[in-house]
Amino acid sequence: MAHVRLITPITTSGFRSEEExxxxxxxxxxxxxxxxxxxxxxxxxxxETAFSEPATILxxxxxxxxxxxxxxxxxxxxxxxxxxxxxxSIPVLGPSQTSMHxxxxxxxxxxxxxxxxxxxxxxxxxxxVYGLKGKLASVRAVDIPVLELEDDIGATQAKLVSxxxxxxxxxxxxxxxxxxxxxxxxxxxxxxxxxERGIDIPVIDPxxxxxxxxxxxxxxxxxxxxxxxxxxxxxAMPGYAGAPSRFSSGP
Amino acid sequence: MAHVRLITPITTSGFRSEEExxxxxxxxxxxxxxxxxxxxxxxxxxxETAFSEPATILxxxxxxxxxxxxxxxxxxxxxxxxxxxxxxSIPVLGPSQTSMHxxxxxxxxxxxxxxxxxxxxxxxxxxxVYGLKGKLASVRAVDIPVLELEDDIGATQAKLVSxxxxxxxxxxxxxxxxxxxxxxxxxxxxxxxxxERGIDIPVIDPxxxxxxxxxxxxxxxxxxxxxxxxxxxxxAMPGYAGAPSRFSSGP
Amino acid sequence: MAHVRLITPITTSGFRSEEExxxxxxxxxxxxxxxxxxxxxxxxxxxETAFSEPATILxxxxxxxxxxxxxxxxxxxxxxxxxxxxxxSIPVLGPSQTSMHxxxxxxxxxxxxxxxxxxxxxxxxxxxVYGLKGKLASVRAVDIPVLELEDDIGATQAKLVSxxxxxxxxxxxxxxxxxxxxxxxxxxxxxxxxxERGIDIPVIDPxxxxxxxxxxxxxxxxxxxxxxxxxxxxxAMPGYAGAPSRFSSGP
Amino acid sequence: MAHVRLITPITTSGFRSEEExxxxxxxxxxxxxxxxxxxxxxxxxxxETAFSEPATILxxxxxxxxxxxxxxxxxxxxxxxxxxxxxxSIPVLGPSQTSMHxxxxxxxxxxxxxxxxxxxxxxxxxxxVYGLKGKLASVRAVDIPVLELEDDIGATQAKLVSxxxxxxxxxxxxxxxxxxxxxxxxxxxxxxxxxERGIDIPVIDPxxxxxxxxxxxxxxxxxxxxxxxxxxxxxAMPGYAGAPSRFSSGP
Amino acid sequence: MAHVRLITPITTSGFRSEEExxxxxxxxxxxxxxxxxxxxxxxxxxxETAFSEPATILxxxxxxxxxxxxxxxxxxxxxxxxxxxxxxSIPVLGPSQTSMHxxxxxxxxxxxxxxxxxxxxxxxxxxxVYGLKGKLASVRAVDIPVLELEDDIGATQAKLVSxxxxxxxxxxxxxxxxxxxxxxxxxxxxxxxxxERGIDIPVIDPxxxxxxxxxxxxxxxxxxxxxxxxxxxxxAMPGYAGAPSRFSSGP
Amino acid sequence: MAHVRLITPITTSGFRSEEExxxxxxxxxxxxxxxxxxxxxxxxxxxETAFSEPATILxxxxxxxxxxxxxxxxxxxxxxxxxxxxxxSIPVLGPSQTSMHxxxxxxxxxxxxxxxxxxxxxxxxxxxVYGLKGKLASVRAVDIPVLELEDDIGATQAKLVSxxxxxxxxxxxxxxxxxxxxxxxxxxxxxxxxxERGIDIPVIDPxxxxxxxxxxxxxxxxxxxxxxxxxxxxxAMPGYAGAPSRFSSGP
Lengths: 251, 251, 251, 251, 251, 251
Description:
Six copies of one chain form a homohexamer.
Chain A: E1 2-8, H1 18-22, E2 29-35, H2 46-65, E3 70-73, H3 81-87, E4 92-93, H4 95-106, E5 110-114, H5 120-129, E6 136-141, H6 153-171, E7 176-178, H7 187-196, E8 203-204, H8 206-220
Parallel strand pairs in A: 1-2, 1-3, 3-4, 5-6, 5-7, 7-8
Helix pairs in contact in A: 2-3, 4-8, 6-7
């Protein structure tokens, strides 16, 4: 049974709970959860992504030492993905990369639905890095602040449906990816809302899907390429007490 | 527990056995197997792909009627993928599309290792259709006829390792995808061979990996987009007695 | 004098007539016509395309045996193009591939005008396969069912003009390609309608243009590459009595 | 019967003769020939291309006034193509654009065989302008000065065959385009040489093929888009006495 | 102190004045100015671009002989850029190429604001040639004739601001490049107008910026590649008395 | 006079000296220098890049507070570029982005010459992010450890010349960019070495060139787009005492 750990790369406590994960775990999948203690309260910018990465990478190194089989990063900016893959051998998955590839497999094109308009360039850049720029139809934002998303969950879901419709009719989207892990749990309602409008397309909830894909990779014995992500050289890292002094194995 | 069916799109009996599948099934995954009776003995060309598709699509329609949860097509040409997705609502996965996307997630670039040099254009075209042309480093062939692949399995695996090395060193491949489902079962040996040469990269065995990914999609409630793959119109199909007379549901 | 055969890949009789071809034949071009008897009544989906291909390919093999100089497939999905090119040495042209390339030569960008909105993904995928995705401005549909296209030909042509205008003004199209061979014969009226609005651009009627290009290729001694389309291996094809038992020449 | 004029954009007399054209003319195609008197002796650089363009464009304007139906520019740099298309309404074809598109239709990829290595960047740039960069496998040069090409025509053709083989085996070319109109007439010998080596691919001789395609366009009533190539404004042109003082028609 | 010369590639006198340049020159930058006497009165088409190039190239050769350190061409069509770079060793910069690259460095995407809608295809083609097609959000035109731009400079600037806003909100532009050197001097007003609407993005005035970049290149000892732009062969150029008889140095 | 600050994003003292900068400063350019105290000793991996970014961004915020006009990051991984541009309004330039754009302006294609083969994927990814993937001919490494680069500077330069030659002849490079700021100062010798072999192309030394370009941007009043790099929200940043508590100005 694959053990996959979700690493929340922000310092706000209570953002993610074990309860949320319990419905995802199950047949063949054991889940655990941790978060960082050094870095941003939440991630809404490249600036905050940068400050999130060191502690996130250290949590992923810790997960490998704990004997975890795979790790998923709990943020659609995929913070620390490239650096962590160098530092460990177990699979490390970002929900943004994973969701974009699954959406590309299931549809001719996809749109990302996120919270803030300022994130459009970030998602277009990630799509370019992941080689999927040609599949990204658009990035659209709902006009609701993150902290108000759950104030009126019905209104949030209704807004998601109407923005998804705009992406479909105006931008040519054939699949939807949620661009904020804070929207976790809304996929079923959005899919139902679209079906009521006669639109039958996949609505990808990144975290549950990426956790399950991580399990499938573990079962298949697959991890990231060490040619793409070679082990870092051993080197001093002043100011980061938790950073490992060496990566190379040996007596 | 997800029930995934593998559809072998060729008429040669005995190509694939239930025994081969038993090691893949397990935690949360139930597998079944069928094949076509009208079409080519094997698929090594676009000509044969075309003659394989009608019967393959009909087998996939049958699978949905049988209550199967998802289908995987057992050939790296992904025959019938686009047509079958229109005809059914359950997920239909091609091993070529799935493996190329997974390789793109796990590495900066990938090469396809296949049996015949004549298949290079086919894989490059599939990569273009799937939106992954920028990730495909090369297509390389081992010089062993399909029917002789198992004559000396050690020699085949040694050849695969040396061709993989050439793809890595000369073409810049960071991951390997087997380009022939006849190579199923060789991934572990090839990965070991590369590790012995100091190369630690994913070697994707398409059928087992695609079956497991199909299970993860079923668990996530995801299927292909019906905007990309809309249900076909009801229409006469002279000469294909098994073709359904109608797709639309109704009383 | 080049002899080019038009192969209609649907089983509905009377869709295409010798009379329609007579105005295209002429200086240096002899035309003949045939159609399939096994497959869909018409082609409006990938599902139907798949069921059209075996019989279409066999008709193309027959054409080569009949001494025809070149073949044009009478459908904008280009059904059977890749498979047929492997099976024969005479030029085989698809109207979609040919029209998209000519439009790309004559204008900075082009739009495809078709009948059904569901075909957008198909044409975008074909453009990707043919290497012309960067030239395709849009795919737009007139809202008239195929069987009603000729009910009020004036209304159809007026609709085509207005949809062409939208493609030009909103999508930046600089040339128009008809995306349905059922629109054959409407190009002059649409071009006139656009000229009356001050827009002087090529409107490509795919079948007549592709037939003439086939003649020019025959005169130039050119055919498709057998590296791209190598001859299929000799192999059994259960369920397709008409399939050749061998492709290789010999005593 | 379409009247197509070949415009030789260099000032060296005797480069092209009516006799060369006689074998191309025939069924439905009437050919004429002219050349420029102001500009370079030959074209082997962007510098010379620039000095060739004004007189070439004026010759094309003259051709339209002479009642010619279409024009082909006799140089693989396609000098004056964009400017001339603005100035006239009859089709103007460049052999480079036309040959690259035909090669892309007939093969998965193509290589350009030219005389001088310095022309590689030029052909790659033209392929980008024409939207075909993804189809260009390589540009390769034979090491024979233009003026010595005909000294030992057998040696030239043998060299072309061996360079074509290198493009096929090392660069993945599936079709060949001659990158110098001075190689006109060598296609049959090169194709034969490749067939003797078991390679059956199209070898495109740009001028004859482009002349025939121009005829097919005239027969189809097609010309370039005036949205891409709008008529120039009427304007003074000091130093070019032959330039028209107005383009707009009027009483 | 770097000496950079601005070459105005049109024959209308008084288009550009020494006074305009005086505010750009200064710390480390000396500027001079010249224009052509053979060619178009202004450049608004590919036709006029072609007639501008010979004299422009000869002026650039003259500049190198005069001991100038670098040259900037004073037109957003970059006329003569490729040909002149072959003919000289000092840096030759086009404002279109330079501005598009700087805009790509400073923003996720950029739009070109020009005078005439007919120039859209030209700028999209230039972006393709310069390798920046993926960064170009749109080309938009103000509806004011060039000769009327300065009639009501306030109205022109207001129109530029509103068209820039449309490019930002509808096309996703993150930076603005002026597409006409006749707009020189308007950047500050347009940037201020956008700031008043809360939009803080770079507005690139191509000529001043390109002149300063030319100075930075001279200070860095950099010029264009002679592999991309090899010296032309010595050759007769009938009809262009000013063309050099030889490029190669020597006794 | 523009004041540009070079920020060295590693904790090893003495890597960069004021003396090195004195030859670059001069006409119109004032330079200053600082480095980080929290982070990696050097940067040779994505892992180290991640640990370098927080302190580098804080140094850039400090530079703006100090009244500096522009900042250049002293590492070819461009660490902190995206995050810092959000946090400040003064221009922030990365040498990798700047050099790749300049190389693309000066040549048809460019190669990056770096120290370690493991960095190939990093540079290809950066080129994709910067929109220049189509211009990157290759990434090649000299086989000399960073700390031994200066042991035998003549040998290092000779190796650079021979690797540059391989990039030119085998990969088609038309310009060279140094892929390690530790190679600063070697450009003149490499250019001379290539000229001795008859190859006249730009060899870009990223730091001096980027510092001069930063000066030109300051003189032009240009900075990065705040639509691409919007100001971060005010937010707590536990564990980073130096992070600003607010970005928004106000009383």
